[in-house]
Design a protein that fits this description.
Elements: H1 28-39, H2 44-54, H3 58-61, H4 66-78, H5 89-108, H6 120-142, H7 144-151, H8 162-174, H9 203-210, H10 216-233, H11 251-262, H12 265-281, H13 292-308, H14 315-325, H15 332-343, H16 350-361, H17 365-377, H18 411-429, H19 434-467, H20 484-487, H21 491-499
Helix pairs in contact: 1-2, 4-5, 5-6, 7-8, 10-11, 12-13
Length: about 500
């Protein structure tokens, strides 16, 4: 009778513990078990049971979600002791969820997961960092609507808008996360191949530069970006340049078509011309003519154009340009000091030189004076100081404009300000010359009164003439519409005076 031997058992794994590191390349099976050991599971049987249930390899981890970990924890906890009951606990459950993000982070930068060179402390720290990155992605996802609205490039209407539109669209795409948790701007990056050896400022930027442009995630993301581009080009002349890419539904292909047209050789020539114009026209002579900060901004714009068009200026060339174009007499000593340092062998970068000159500019009398005036205008003497807010100007008149610390004023002072504001509003309604108008009105009243007096005198004279035998039926006693010219010696008045005869 032939007895079938049992299948050979894999030798028990010897785990790396403590501060010891994994120094040699190990397979996925042993790597997974080593990770479970670091997370806090003990006993070869328990570790094997968990690994066999869901962690046979790194590719299996990619399809898991945090909810799957919760369900697995509940499943093992519900088993009997004989069936292999395992209590994960809060900490181990949390670290298993972090493992999902840690594993995916490798694929986000076109790398394979590995524990080589790690020990327990380093690995746990990496899991914590993976959780933090997951929180960042969630924050980006939560802010998508707001960020996308702010970065919305609008329709691409003409060639002159291309440069700005491209930058805005890139930011717009970056505000949306793809299926794999990477900002969608990776789909339209100019480099085809990942560049993993560059020192990136943060992990998100690294994922944009290094996420593979292939695979199921990319297939889904390129469609999303394609729809974005179509939304901003349909009905515009720019839409004609992406029509040939419609059948591919590939946002990367569509963006390339736009770049080939708007940023082709002719566009590059125009960009270089713009940079050359800046190179020729830029000078710093004074803060009044052109602020030093604005001068540096324009310089940076010029450097960026040259770099984008493949004519990058070296550090030495940038520094020479800076020294040549800074022509303010008050900065000669600062420029000479920098030149002396360079002659002495000091490694002076363009940034160092620009910062040094910025400091020197801040000490120029014209700069100090300008900023002192600006500071005086915006000076707050009510908040953040010992001086209490006041409603009175230096001439003891009541303020009617903006008053810092309004809410700390007493109700009585607030009412005084309100009353003064109301008085000034009423005064403004009568016009700026209201006092003059009032004086004129008073004078007119006086003249009318005087006019009536004169009219009474004339009537009296007429009555006297009639009493002396000079009959005149037309006395004009009630003539209230006498020409004003009559009252001031006009022609009509003179004629009337000639008709009146006095007895002597």
């Amino acid at each position: 009778m032939n007895v079938i031997p049992p299948p050979p058992q894999a030798p028990p794994q010897v785990f790396v513990i403590g501060n010891a590191t994994v120094s040699a390349e190990i397979g996925e099976r042993d790597s997974i078990r080593q990770i479970l050991y670091w997370i806090g599971f003990r006993g070869q049987q328990n570790i094997n049971a968990i690994a066999d249930d869901a962690f046979s390899g790194f590719s299996d981890i990619r399809v898991l979600t945090e909810k799957d970990i919760t369900n697995m924890s509940s499943g093992f906890a519900s088993r009997t002791q004989a069936d292999g009951r395992i209590l994960f606990g809060t900490r181990r459950t949390k670290l298993l969820k972090a493992l999902i993000h840690w594993n995916e982070d490798f694929f986000r930068v076109s790398q394979l997961p590995s524990v080589v060179g790690l020990n327990e402390a380093i690995f746990i720290a990496q899991l914590e960092r993976a959780l933090a990155r997951a929180d960042i992605r969630k924050a980006i996802q939560d802010q998508t609507t707001t960020a996308a609205s702010a970065a919305n490039p609008g329709p691409l209407k003409s060639e002159k808008e291309w440069k700005q539109w491209e930058e805005k669209f890139t930011n717009y795409a970056a505000a949306h996360l793809g299926v794999g948790g990477v900002p969608l701007s990776y789909v339209i990056r100019e480099a085809n191949l990942p560049a993993p050896n560059i020192n990136y400022p943060d992990f998100v930027t690294r994922t944009i530069a290094c996420t593979p442009l292939a695979g199921e995630y990319f297939e889904a993301d390129k469609l999303t970006v394609f729809n974005m581009i179509i939304a901003f080009t349909t009905g515009q002349p720019s839409g004609d340049w992406v029509k040939a890419t419609h059948r591919y539904a590939n946002g990367r292909r569509s963006m390339k078509a736009l770049r080939d047209h708007f940023a082709g050789e002719g566009n590059a020539t125009r960009n270089i011309s713009e940079a050359d114009r800046l190179k020729e026209s830029l000078h710093y002579k004074s803060e009044r003519a052109l602020a030093f900060e604005s001068f540096l901004t324009q310089c940076q714009k010029m450097y960026h154009i040259y770099e984008k068009e493949g004519e990058t200026m070296s550090e030495e060339a940038k520094i020479r340009f800076l020294f040549k174009k800074v022509q303010h007499t008050g900065l000669k000593s600062a420029v000479e000091a920098l030149k002396a340092q360079m002659t002495a062998g000091v490694n002076v970068t363009y940034t160092m030189a620009a910062n040094h000159l910025s400091t020197a500019v801040s000490e120029l009398p014209e700069y100090v004076s300008k900023n002192r005036n600006v500071s005086a205008v915006g000076e707050d003497k009510s908040e953040g100081s010992s001086e209490k807010p006041t409603i009175y100007n230096s001439d003891k008149s009541i303020k009617t404009g903006y008053i810092q610390g309004w809410h700390s004023l007493s109700e009585a002072d607030q009412e005084k300000v309100k009353a003064e504001r109301a008085r000034k509003r009423a005064a403004r309604k009568t016009g700026p010359n209201s006092n003059d108008k009032s004086a004129t009105s008073n004078r007119m009243k006086q003249l009318v009164k005087q006019n009536k007096k004169y009219k009474r005198q004339i009537k009296s004279l007429k009555r006297s003439t009639n009493d002396d035998g000079n009959n005149n039926d037309s006395t004009d006693d009630d003539d209230e519409d006498t020409d004003a010219g009559d009252q001031f010696g006009g022609k009509a008045s003179k004629k009337k005076r000639k008709k009146v005869k006095f007895n002597t």
